Amino acid sequence: MYTYTMTFVSCDNIGLPADDDVFSGNIISGIVTEKLNKHELELADFNWSGAYSFDNSLSYLMSPYKFNFVVEVRVKLDVTTIQNRQAIYDRCLEALKKDEVLLKRVECLRDDDSHKEQCVLCFDIKSAA
After folding, report:
1. Tens digit of each residue's pLDDT (9 = 90 or more) over 78-115
2. How many whole angstroms separate alpha carbon 52 and alpha carbon 68?
3. Distance between CA 101 and CA 26 in Å, rounded?
4. Can you give the residue range of the structural domain that contains 19?
5. Where are the alpha helices (DSSP H) in 15-128?
6. pLDDT value, residue 129
7. Are 45 and 53 in contact (CB under 8 A)?
8. What is the count of structural domains for the chain?
9. Helices marked H in the chain — which ranges?
């Protein structure tokens, strides 16, 4: 098994509460889990973590993409799982549901053109975070 970073995107607003306590991780994890469970996030990319850069996720907030939020989930995947997009999606959902990952980073930017807040949320394996 190798560690991979999956990148999920959405044009919808994530719906983070304005309260600063949201960054405790539990609320964000619940929101992301619910969105994954309802298939409201699109699996845009997955990379072997050794060759991954956070700039990959930031690029989804800019032209030509302009997504409103991006979610990174870093987990271990076996060879069978990486051959099927739905299996990758399901594995990330399982990792969030079972608290195998925790929120490591929240990066929010304000788009000056649309006045929308765009966020990148990064979840990492508990043992590595």
Report:
1. 999 999 999 999 999 999 999 999 999 988 887 666 66
2. 21
3. 11
4. 2-125
5. 26-37, 54-59, 85-97
6. 47
7. no
8. 1
9. 26-37, 54-59, 85-97
